[in-house]
Amino acid sequence: MGEAPHQPESLLEAVELTKRFGALVANDRVSLAIRAGETHALLGENGAGKSTLVKMMCGLLQADSGELLYEGTPIVFPDPASSRAKGVGVVFQHFALFDAMTVVENVALGLPGHQPLSVLAARIDDCVRRYGLAVEPYRRVGELSVGERQRVEIVRCLLGDPRVLILDEPTSVLTPDESENLFRTVDVLTGEGRAVLFISHKLDEVRRLCHRATVLRGGKFIAEVDPKRESSASLARLMVGAEVPRTPRVTTHALGEPRLLVRHLNLPGDGSRGSALHDINIEVRAGEIVGIAGVAGNGQTALFNVLSGETLVEDQESIVIDKVAAGGLGPTERRALGAGFVPEERLGHAAAPDMRLSDNVLLTTHGDGEIVTADVIRRTTLFGRFQKIVKGFDVRFGGKDPKARRLSGGNLQKFVIGREVLRNPVLIVVDQPTWGVDAAAAGFIRTTLRERAAQGCAVLVVSQDLDELLEFTDRIAVMSEGRLTAPVPVEETSREAIGLAMGGAHGAHDSDAEGEGHHAA
Amino acid sequence: MLDAAILGAVFASIVAAATTLLIASLGELVAERAGTLNLGVEGMMIVGAAVGYATAYGSGSLLLGTLAAVLAGVLLSLVFAGLAIWLATNQVASGLATTILGLGVAGLIGSNFVGTRLDGAPELVIPGLTDLPIIGEAVFGQNAYVYASLVLLAAVTYTLARTRIGLVLRAVGENHAAAHALGHPVRGIRTLAVMFGGACAGLAGAHLSLAYTPFWASDMTAGRGWIALALVVFSAWRPLWLLGGAYLFGAVSILQLHAQGFGLGIPSQLLSSLPYLATIAALVVISALKHGQGAPASLGVPFVPDR
Fold first, then answer.
1. Nearest residue to B118 via CA among B54, B43, B214, B199
2. Which residues does the UniProt record annotate as the domain ABC transporter (chain A) (predicted)?
């Protein structure tokens, strides 16, 4: 016991934790110590084992070997309630919230024992004042924005008076402004002597906010560093284990015909949340990549569905794909016009989870006339295309032709992108191309889309990752509450301008966009 | 034509018919609010009716019969809970299997009692009040089951809305993954909710065979379990609405009997099918009003915790 030399001030410490899932070693003797008053970063790619480690540290998973120390004494958390009782609070990336209930009911569910809701509401208000976390106790969670939901989660944790607060990728759903607010809250918390474990793969944030950083790669402990003394590049090297390729962005080729033309596109709301679309105008020409930035839930999904033909609009002319009015055409007809679509949700939307990969190829290629002819599936042609996708896009999996759900997120995304790209579309619309994908795969996907553009394809990318859009798109428009600003060339805009527009300050961004008026016409 | 005495009797019988539905649907509502769709209500109800009748017939005690019926309902609900909650089987298939099993078991138990008869549960008599015209018998002259159903309604309404266990139960039905992450025992709570549903179904069965029609006939539940299921949807998962729904359906099923008696020239088969047609109509109206209104978000989805 206690073989690792640990400083006495360590509040919570993982010592050589190992966790296996079948043949996969998710955590291989991983150690991590969090001290009181510090913000500790846990860095790693998707699949590096961050979530597994966190789940073991809060009792959601049990380690196969290794131990947890709480203030230097070995401790076992059989369930999340026991870790909470010891003062370990976790805010997960996927919120544990109940949409149909009010904020105060949600908070009550996370606390032991029974308290009258009115007392709890007063405590929430108190917490809101102390930490600058704006939430209203009696609103229904289903009506809240993602940022507000996150604050509800944090408030719920804080009312349990935690000594260690674990934040799992907290900024991935926030606008730059909301992130700043969160950082201030984190500073207040550590100032009170609490410890914060900050899980992220956004290196700039980690370098700004965190006192120490533990880096994981492939389920193994790689290093513990002082992030303030590292550069983003050196941290990325530790995470990836190699240089991260930057995507060349310069557009040298001439732009061609507009492949996608959206004019005065409107979509009425469905009454509940889920923004409708108001007068959307955008043009994507052959050879360019246009990005749409914005915080989730501002109408991006509605826009994607309208573009892909899953939602039809009355005005035929409001969507023109390669000179054909397409507002009333379904997805298959739009694909026949040369369009390709990659929705945000991979399992269940882009791919059928329980169908084999080769059969998943059929989902978007059945109308192309190559793999399915005269209503008969050409198995050999299908399998040839499948092999081409797997080889060309480096899709890795076990077995010959597994079900889609067996693939990791990154590999499935490469497969889905490959499936569309090999159809040789003239227009690709991608929603969240690299969400939850590790840096190497993300770089590959961006480079591929870049190459397609160079070959004359028009690419429209919807993403919440501003850095990604700044890195590889030519023009950026911002979506906020169902409205879209005019796209601005990347070199003429800035993080700040886009951030403002994401928060709904239309004027600020529009004035920047004045010179770009001809694009939107 | 209709004098006060007849009207009073009609109201009283509407209350009696509605009571079975109210008790059974309250139990199912609790199970569904916890996220479990229990299609075994009909089976649990008829097993309750059979076991209750057999016990009461053998012991001569209606109370013992009622307790036995509740216990039988709970036991059958545990079969369903074991399959649907702990083995995470498909809830629809497991529920249907439970109903088929229940119908078989009840037929087996009841086969010895065909043609026998019991003295039904006694009705309350408050001199003066019970003798009030029209509503006297309906309000002040009912048996213990009727009053128990109303107490149960109040208890379920209060528990779901105001207590911590009610809050946790709703949370489990709303988002089981989140409830699990917060440390609530999802499967344990669902099992308790399904057991409560089984107890209610058993009690409803006892009301049928010990009070409403105090004799045994195979298939005597006659689809009331299914109507109870539809009522839960009809009520949009709100217990107080169940009261209205149950009495509406009770009224339809009684009034069609009287309509047959008046000889309206409508085929009796059509009139007998009125409650079921009303069920379908209610479901259509509800789903047309707003899609999935009020349904617990995790309803019917088996919960499997992480390894």
1. B214
2. 12-243, 262-506
State whether A220 and A299 are in the same domain: no
What is the nearest CA distance from A78 to chain B, expressed in angstroms? 10
Among A80, A95, A98, beta carbon nearest to B171? A98
Residue of B nearest to A77 (CA): B183
Q: Tell me which chain A residue has its CA closest to the CA of residue B294.
A: A100
Do A152 and A195 lie in one domain? The reply is: yes
Q: Domain holding A306: CATH number?
A: 3.40.50.300
Contact B174 A98 (CB under 8 A): yes
Chain B neighbors of A95, CB-CB under 8 A: 178
Residues 240-299 of B with CB under 8 A from A: 296-297
Cα–Cα distance between A100 and A323 in angstroms, integer?
A: 45
pLDDT tens track for A335-378 = 999 999 999 888 888 899 889 999 999 888 888 888 888 888 98
pTM given for the model: 0.73
- Are B182 and A110 an interchain contact pair (Cβ–Cβ within 8 Å)? yes
Q: Which of A21, A61, A97 sits opposite B178 (nearest CB)?
A: A97
CA angle A82, A83, A87 (to 5 degrees): 115
The three-state secondary structure class of A264 is strand
Under DSSP, is residue B35 helix (H, G, I), strand (E, B) or coil? Answer: coil
- Joined together, the tokens standing for residue A480 give 């906020």
Which tokens in the block code for residue B151? 């107490």
In angstroms, the CA B150 to CA B135 distance is: 17
Contact B171 A109 (CB under 8 A): yes
Q: Are residues A209 and A354 in the same domain?
A: no
Give the mean model confidence (pLDDT) for residues B216-227.
90
pLDDT digits (tens, 9 = 90+) for A121-166: 999 999 888 888 888 899 999 888 778 888 899 999 888 889 999 9
**Calpha distance A290→A494 (Å, rounded):** 15
- Phi-psi label, residue B236: left if phi above 0, alpha if psi -120 to 50, beta otherwise: left
Exposed, middle or buried, A399 (CB in 10 Å: 0-12/13-18/19+)?
exposed
Rounded Cα gap, residues A43 and A50, in angstroms = 8
B171 touches chain A (CB under 8 A): yes
Domain count, chain A: 3
Residues A180 and A328 in one domain: no
For residue A363 the two structure tokens come to 């989902």
Whether residue A292 is contained in a domain is answered as yes
Contact B306/A92, CB-based, under 8 Å? no
pLDDT of the residue at B306? 62
Of B163, B184, B307, the CB nearest to A21: B307
Alpha helices in A141-244, H assignment, sequence order: 146-159, 176-191, 203-209, 232-240
Please provide residue A20's backbone torsions phi and psi, each rounded to the nearest 5 degrees: -115, 140
Are A80 and B181 an interchain contact pair (Cβ–Cβ within 8 Å)?
A: yes
Domain ranges of chain B: 4-289
Torsion of CA A194, A195, A200, A206, to 10 degrees: 90
Contact A81 B183 (CB under 8 A): yes
Dig out the tokens for A236 from the structure: 């990325």
A1 found inside a domain: no
Give the residue numbers spanning the domain of A255: 247-338+425-521
Q: Which of A182, A212, A240 represents a domain boundary (last residue)? A: A240
Closest by Cβ to A98, choosing from B163, B178, B306: B178
